[in-house]
Design a protein that fits this description.
The complex is a heterodimer of chains A (267) and B (272).
Chain A: E1 2-10, E2 15-23, E3 28-32, H1 39-47, E4 54-59, E5 62-63, E6 74-77, H2 89-99, H3 104-117, H4 133-145, E7 151-155, H5 163-180, E8 183-188, H6 191-197, E9 200-205, E10 208-213, H7 215-220, H8 225-230, H9 245-266
Parallel strand pairs in A: 3-8, 3-9, 6-7, 7-8
Antiparallel strand pairs in A: 1-2, 1-4, 4-5, 9-10
Helix pairs in contact in A: 2-3, 2-4
Chain B: H1 2-12, H2 14-44, H3 46-54, H4 56-89, H5 95-107, H6 110-121, H7 126-133, H8 142-166, H9 170-178, H10 183-211, H11 215-220, H12 227-271
Helix pairs in contact in B: 2-3, 3-12, 4-8, 4-10, 4-12, 5-8, 6-8, 8-10, 9-10, 10-12
Chain lengths: 267, 272
């Protein structure tokens, strides 16, 4: 379990304001926010590249705020995959295990196993520059998963892919998460991606975490008008809620409207 | 009809053609100057060239030139690589001042650089005195040559190295650290191998610059004579006939070494 407690930090053109959230073991948590909302910086802070000016980061209850990145055992997959261009695919995947100074045989076995399970064994002697985006993404995932990280950080993992590959990899991410159960923090600006993969969603705007909720609640009951606009609610009605039951009526109306549409289409 | 078509073709490319013509003048200027000297020497005075090649004074001066410049490049690499990395990766107050300081040796006259070096490193100055206490003297010694070469060639190395480091995405280093590599490990395993081509070409540039240095060296160390100083000396005492063979010999050796370095670098890269 990882917890951020009142984390605040300022960069040149972005700041985090009092961000707190907690991700349970095995959970797939998605931070959803508009592009250029500094989402990468949140992940880099969790990974240990910035020590927040204020606040704490706890991993399994232990304060890791001041622990350097190499001692956190957190996997990171960047949007551009950042494969080491001078190493072939096998060396890329083996890098983390070699840093742990594992015996050669063990490294070999673990690398083979993860490459088989991700279906990338056939790439092992190729250089990253010769791979397609989807292949690079699988390699980057394999490279960070092979060290069995406590937390896996995914920075817009699907946004650089073409639509077809994106869909395949989204399913792949889902499968990997189901099989390995790695606690995952994943940032994206894509609502579909969030809805398809997230156990819970945190919406970030202007460096503030404005809503943390189940996916359907974020989309059906956005906390503020801004969130509503961002998650794509088209009809925002000004007014005052005088009774919560009105909400129910609104939903029933929607269902009736939907049924009406279906029946009309059938005719 | 065909000529008309060709003509419109010329018209369409008139800008590039004119630029090509004007630009080739510069290339002709450079190559003509060098080849004129080299070929005239080889064709009309082979004997003089062979004589120079057999002259121990000449050989010694050329070897000394290559060796001193190599030492200067080595020092530039040892001190310049960390500096270049810091400049490539960090922003700090006064960074632009530091960057200008690095480039200063390129823009000041080299005789001026020589005077400044002499003033600092002569044994009567505190710095020169401190060095002479540990047995290093700069006036008319190899170390004088090395500091002069270092002064003028370091910018070439540092700038090339900085460009090399800048071309590496810092995310690669970050990923390495996430995977358990310390800062040092990630520098050695990721950054250095990726920058090595830039570092190498920077070193070659610095080395070449060191070999060609005359103005700064002559102020602090007339003796032992490096090849450019010897060429100047022979020119003033024996004229063109006495100095040209040495000049051609030096140029041939330099070209030979550079071709060798470049091809070996290419071969090395291909092998990887």
């Amino acid at each position: 379990m990882i917890t951020l407690e009142n984390v605040s930090h300022e960069w040149d053109d972005f700041s985090l304001k009092n961000v707190s959230f907690s991700v349970k073991k095995g959970e797939h948590f998605i931070i959803l926010g508009p592009t250029a909302a500094g989402k990468t910086l949140i992940l880099e802070t969790i990974a240990g590249f910035y020590v927040p000016r204020e606040g704490k980061i706890l991993l399994h209850g232990k304060d890791i705020t001041h622990i350097p990145p190499e001692k956190r055992n957190i996997g990171f997959v960047y949007q551009d995959y950042s494969l080491f261009p001078h190493m072939n695919i096998k060396e890329n995947v083996a890098f983390g295990l070699k840093m742990q100074k594992l015996p050669k045989k063990e490294v070999e076995a673990k690398v083979q196993e993860i490459m088989d399970s991700m279906g990338i064994s056939y790439l092992q002697n190729r250089l990253p520059s010769t791979l397609s985006g989807g292949e690079q993404q699988r390699v980057a995932l394999a490279r960070s998963l092979v060290i069995d990280p406590e937390i896996l950080l995914l920075d817009e993992p699907l946004s650089a892919l073409d639509p077809r590959t994106r869909e395949t990899l989204r399913e792949e991410l889902k499968r990997i998460h189901e099989v390995r159960g790695t606690t995952t923090i994943h940032v994206t600006h894509d609502q579909d991606e969030a809805l398809a993969l997230a156990d819970r969603i945190g919406v970030i705007m202007d460096g503030k975490l404005v809503q943390v909720d189940d996916p359907h609640r974020v989309f059906n009951e956005p906390a503020t008008e801004e969130i509503a606009t961002f998650v794509g609610v088209e009809n925002v009605i000004d007014g005052k809620i005088i009774s919560k039951t009105a909400w129910l009526w609104w939903r029933l109306e929607n269902i009736r409207y939907a049924l009406f549409q279906i029946s009309r289409k059938e005719k | 009809m065909a000529t008309k078509k060709a003509l419109t073709g010329v018209k369409r490319h008139s800008l590039s053609l004119i630029f090509l013509f004007v630009g080739s003048l510069l290339i002709i200027f450079t190559t003509l100057t060098l080849f004129n000297m080299i070929f005239r020497q080889i064709i009309f005075d082979t004997e003089g060239l062979l004589e120079a090649a057999a002259d121990p004074v000449v050989v010694k001066s050329i070897v000394l030139t290559l060796y001193c410049s190599f030492l200067a490049t080595l020092i530039a690499a040892l001190l310049g690589t960390p500096l270049a990395y810091v400049l490539a990766r960090h922003d700090f107050l006064g960074k632009s001042v530091v960057e200008s300081v690095i480039d200063v040796p390129v823009v000041i006259p080299h005789s001026v650089a020589g005077i400044a070096l002499y003033a600092l490193f002569m044994s009567r100055s505190p710095v020169g005195e401190a060095f002479s206490n540990i047995g290093i003297v700069f006036e008319d010694s190899m170390w004088g040559i090395v500091v002069a070469m270092l002064f003028v060639s370091a910018p070439f190395y540092v700038n090339a190295a900085r460009e090399g480091f800048q071309s590496i995405n810092p995310r690669l280093e970050r990923v390495a650290r996430n995977l358990g590599a310390s800062q040092w490990k990630s520098f050695c395993k990721i950054t250095l191998p990726l920058a090595v081509r830039h570092l190498f070409s920077g070193a070659v540039m610095a080395w070449a610059r060191g070999i060609s240095e005359f103005g700064a060296v002559i102020m602090i160390a007339f003796y032992p004579m490096i090849a450019p100083v010897l060429i100047f000396y022979r020119f003033t005492t024996h004229g063109l006939a006495g100095s040209q063979p040495i000049a051609v010999l030096l140029i041939l050796i330099c070209i030979g070494v550079f071709v060798l370095l470049r091809t070996s670098a290419k071969y090395w890269e291909k092998k990887k």
